[in-house]
Amino acid sequence: MKLRPALLASLSVVALCPDPAAAQAIPGGEIVVEGEGLAPPPGDAAYSTLTIDRYRLTHLAGGRLEEALADVAGLASYRRSDSTSSHPTSQGITLRGLGGNASSRALLLLDGVPQSDPFGGWVAFPAYLPDTLARIRVMRGGGSGVQGPGALAGTVEMTSAGPDMLPTLAANVRYGSRDSLDSALYGATRAGSGFVGYGASYRRGDGFIPVVAEDRGAADILAWYEQGNLALRAGIDADADTQLQASVRGFVDRRGGGTAFTGIRSEGVDASLRAVGTGRWQWSVLGYVQARNLASGFASVDDSRDTARPALDQYQVPSTGIGGRVEVVPPLGGGWTLRLGGDVRSVTGRTQERYIFTGTTPTRRREAGGTSRTLGGFTDLNYQSGPWTLDAGGRVDFWRIGQGRLIEQNFSGEPPITDSRFAPRTGVEPTGRIGAAYRLSPLVTLRAAAYRGWRLPTLNELYRPYRVGADATAANAMLDPEHLSGVEIGADLVAGPFGRLTATLFHNRLEDSIANVTLGQGPGSFPGVGFVSGAGVYRQRRNLDAVTTSGAEIALHLKLGSYRIDAGYAYSDPRVEAGGEAAPLDGLRPAQTPRHSAHGTFGWQSAGGIDVSATLRYLGPRFEDDLNTIRLGSAVTLDGSVEVPVTQRLSVQVSGENITGAQVVSAIDGDGVTERARARTIFAGVSVRFD
């Protein structure tokens, strides 16, 4: 479980490749590079938005990015497990109950760069250190063409902190339950007309046994983890109106899956370069490259759970994403703001696997993968006059899916069992949004919006068959893109810096929704996967007619003196519309989509610097499967932390996750074996800071 030193070597190799960020102009003509790009369009006031500020990002009980995102009611990954215990491929993010499989239906960006895995669309949460972020801004709803394609359920924008927010040096280390160790180092320093920033973290732990005590056997073992990341950023003024910023980041993630033969290895390196003009004509140019690789083992366990045997060795899943964007904001004046630009993204990836084992020896191998590209242009026009803010934006994307293949053959050297080569496909997708906000009073703003967005299937959905336990799911190279149409109305009540209450009602329709559709029950042989035992079911990725969802979202932020309250509630009721072979799903809810979710965080800071926070979360019940036959119950969890300063620079902290030890069910298989998502974890540590 040792992290390989290749991470540092990889970072040095890609440091010359293109990252994002930018700068802010201040009065008097002086340019201060703060690591941010162009300001959000004024028209964003017409849409449902929520910001997670830096205070919250630096006061997380577990210190993980997904913990911060859980503060957005209705935002969820496919499974309830976090990034220390889940399988990485289950951690796509979505909003408003528009899930159904593990691919992200929300567009996640860091300083303008897409962050989802190029091959599978999931998110590598261990790659991020929340302490180095300035804020996370979440815009619910689709059609946000300024940021790029793929924003079906919403857009999540992460912004790196600049030297105005970061100390010169900060470090913390914590030790906790099950021999857990968390450590982090970060900071920034100004250098001439620019700055250099850095961040690194390392965490490890013995983990817990995922299978609940009453179901486990000798084959069930601890799901350990070891993870690290490193990020370097630099910014400089090229002239009075132009800033350049480069960054490079990498991560390594190792996990055990809870039985023998289920080890997981994930790693990646990203680099990007951005130039931002802050003069009369504002502009931004961004280029980036992502390199990812995943290796994962899967096992079959006998009925008594005494013995585990290898079932699949996904020994390499390399993928690359390369892209860029150009944006211009001409000086219109008169209350008008116009943004024009374009973006391109090219993705290549494949999975390489060994399967059908005799004992521990594989007898067959599989390769599946391909390429996809999008090229789009966008425009967004805003108008502000008196109490009105109006927004209209649109984009046109050209897409191409190519070089698709699925090859399966015996190691004995015989001709391939499967040699499928798929013809290239192309298409054009026009999408857009319109919105209006009306300031009814200095405190109250009403808003309404309509939008249409789209998402291209991932290479994983198109080409890779897979198995979980006895169940098998076939790929589908003919999947169509997903299309979402939606409307929403809402109100924002803002009382200066002291409080904000937002409420939104929405209706979304996701046409051609991609889901894993149950088509048969074993035993038997099925297309694309082969033999399925009597304990398993056969599924294939299919485009459903649609998933419709209506619901409501409420978010509250209060800051009263030394007290702080953040709370949120989301209700959504997604329903499948399906015919043909998928007709049994008609009227059911997509897998892993709860109706209700809620959270509340209470914080207090004393005059002497003592900091206390506690977060209560409600995780609503959901169904494990598409046929809604296996129900996962609700759960309530409590996280919290207490930090006490010892000196001006040194403080001590005690924190806990799932303090009450609630059983949060992650999965139940066809045999009724239950897996839990998390265990009680208590940490104690120290931190130092030099400003």
From TrEMBL:
Q: Tell whether Manganese is among the UniProt keywords.
A: no
Taking every annotated instance into account, which residue ranges of this chain make up the domain TonB-dependent receptor plug? 44-155
- Gene Ontology MF, one: siderophore uptake transmembrane transporter activity
Highest taxon of source: Bacteria
Bilayer topology reads:
Multi-pass membrane protein
Pfam families in alphabetical order: Plug, TonB_dep_Rec_b-barrel
> Where is this chain's protein located in or outside the cell?
Cell outer membrane
Q: Name one GO biological process term.
A: siderophore transmembrane transport
* Xref: InterPro entries: Beta-barrel_TonB (IPR000531), Beta-barrel_TonB_sf (IPR036942), Plug_dom (IPR012910), Plug_dom_sf (IPR037066), TonB-dep_rcpt-like (IPR039426)
Is rRNA-binding found in the keyword set? no
Q: Its GO CC terms?
A: cell outer membrane
TonB-dependent receptor-like beta-barrel domain boundaries: 249-659
Which family is this sequence assigned to? Belongs to the TonB-dependent receptor family.
Put simply, this protein is called Outer membrane cobalamin receptor
